[in-house]
Design goal:
The longest helix has 17 residues. The chain folds into 3 domains: 94 residues, Mannose-Binding Protein A, subunit A (Mannose-Binding Protein A, Chain A, Roll), CATH 3.10.100; 113 residues, no CATH class; 60 residues, no CATH class. By secondary structure, the chain is an alpha+beta fold. Strands 2, 11, 12, 13 and 14 form a 5-stranded mixed β-sheet that branches. It has a 5-stranded antiparallel β-sheet with strand order 4-3-10-5-6, covered by helices on one side. Strands 16, 17, 18 and 19 form a 4-stranded antiparallel β-sheet that branches. This is C-type lectin domain-containing protein. InterPro entries: C-type_lectin-like, C-type_lectin-like/link_sf, C-type_lectin_CS, CTDL_fold. Pfam families: Lectin_C (PF00059).
Length: 291
C-alpha cells in the first residue's frame, strides 16, 4: 500500500495508533527487525515542521500560518535542512538562514529611548542573542506590520531577528525527537520540492528526508492501552518549563523513577493546552499535564 506521508498518518491513526515513533535504540532495533530489506523507503512519524517557530524574547510560540510574518517569496525553505534562524533584509523581508553564519543583528531594548538597536558587528545567531541579552533586552521580536516598519527604518542588511526553531523536532504523535538514525549526509533537503518528512530505508535501516507528497510504504505503531491515566504535576523552577529540552529531561527523570519502582511498560508524553504544556498559577507555580 503506497501513500503520501499525510495519507499514511491518517491511515495509521484510524487503524492503529499513529505512524511509528522511534525514541531510542530499542525502538530502532524493533523497527529494523520488521524491515524486509528491498531498498524501498517506508514512512515513519518524524517530520520537520516549517511553521512552528519561537521568538527568543519570552520564548513565545509563533506559527507562520496564523501570526504576522513577512517571509520573502519561497521562504522559509530550509535549504540543505540546516536553516533554522531568521534574518531580515533592508526592505523588511524575512529569510530562514544557517544559524552559524555571521550577520549583524537587531536588538530590542525595553528600557531604552530607542527600542530597536541595529548592531553592525557580525556574529552568529547564538552569539547575537547572547550579546543582545547582555547589553539590551534580547534579539528583537516582530509581531505586527508597525514593528516591522520600525526595523526597516534602521536599514538592516540580512540582520538577525529573534525568530528560530528546532530542526526535525517532532514525531507524528507530537512527542519530541531526541534519537535519530540519519543516513550519512542526511537530512539534506536537496531536491526540487521540500523534503520535510522522514522515511526509513528498508535495507539499511537508516533515515532519509523525503518529499512528503511522494508515495511510499509506511510503518504504523499500535499500543494496547489497558489503563490510561492523566496526572497534573506542579513544579517550582527557575528553568523555562516550556523549553522542549527541559521537558525531555523531566520525562527522563520520571521514566527512571517509574522503572525503579517496577513499572517499565509505559509511555509518557506532555499534553498541550492552549499551546502550552505548563501554565503559571497564582503562587508562581508551574503545572503540566502528563499522560
Amino acid at each position: 500500500m503506497l501513500k503520501t506521508w499525510a495519507e499514511a498518518q491518517s491511515y495509521c491513526r484510524e487503524t492503529f495508533t499513529d505512524l511509528a515513533t522511534v525514541e531510542n535504540q530499542d525502538d530502532h532495533d524493533r523497527l529494523q527487525s520488521i524491515l524486509q530489506g528491498d531498498g524501498e523507503y517506508a514512512w515513519i512519524g518524524l517530520y520537520d515542521d516549517l511553521t512552528r517557530w519561537k521568538w527568543t524574547l519570552g520564548n513565545a510560540d509563533f506559527n507562520s500560518d496564523t501570526d504576522f510574518s513577512n517571509w520573502k517569496s519561497n521562504e522559509p525553505n530550509n535549504q540543505y535542512s540546516k536553516e533554522n534562524c531568521t534574518v531580515m533584509n533592508h526592505v523588511g523581508r524575512w529569510r530562514d538562514y544557517l544559524c552559524s553564519e555571521q550577520r549583524p543583528a537587531v536588538c530590542y531594548y525595553e528600557q531604552g529611548p530607542s527600542r530597536y538597536i541595529l548592531v553592525t558587528t557580525q556574529r552568529t545567531w547564538h552569539e547575537a542573542r547572547a550579546f543582545c541579552r547582555s547589553k539590551y533586552t534580547d534579539l528583537v521580536s516582530v509581531r505586527n506590520r508597525s514593528e516591522n516598519d520600525h526595523i526597516i527604518s534602521l536599514q538592516p542588511k540580512r540582520a538577525w531577528i529573534g525568530l528560530h526553531r528546532n530542526l526535525w523536532a517532532y514525531w507524528s504523535d507530537q512527542s519530541h525527537s531526541t534519537f535519530t538514525n540519519w543516513n550519512e549526509g542526511q537530512p539534506d533537503n536537496n531536491g526540487d520540492t521540500m523534503e520535510s518528512c522522514a522515511a526509513v530505508n528498508t535495507t539499511t535501516g537508516t533515515w532519509w528526508d523525503v518529499d512528503c507528497n511522494s508515495k511510499h510504504y509506511f510503518i504504523c505503531e499500535e499500543f494496547k492501552i489497558r489503563h490510561k491515566k492523566t496526572f497534573k504535576l506542579k513544579f517550582q523552577s527557575e528553568a523555562d518549563l516550556n523549553d522542549p529540552a527541559v521537558q525531555q529531561q523531566i520525562l527522563e527523570q520520571l521514566h527512571a523513577k517509574l522503572e525503579k519502582h517496577g513499572l517499565p511498560d509505559f509511555k509518557l508524553r506532555w499534553v498541550e493546552t492552549d499551546g502550552q504544556t505548563f501554565h503559571k498559577q497564582k503562587q508562581e507555580e508551574e503545572e503540566g499535564i502528563l499522560v
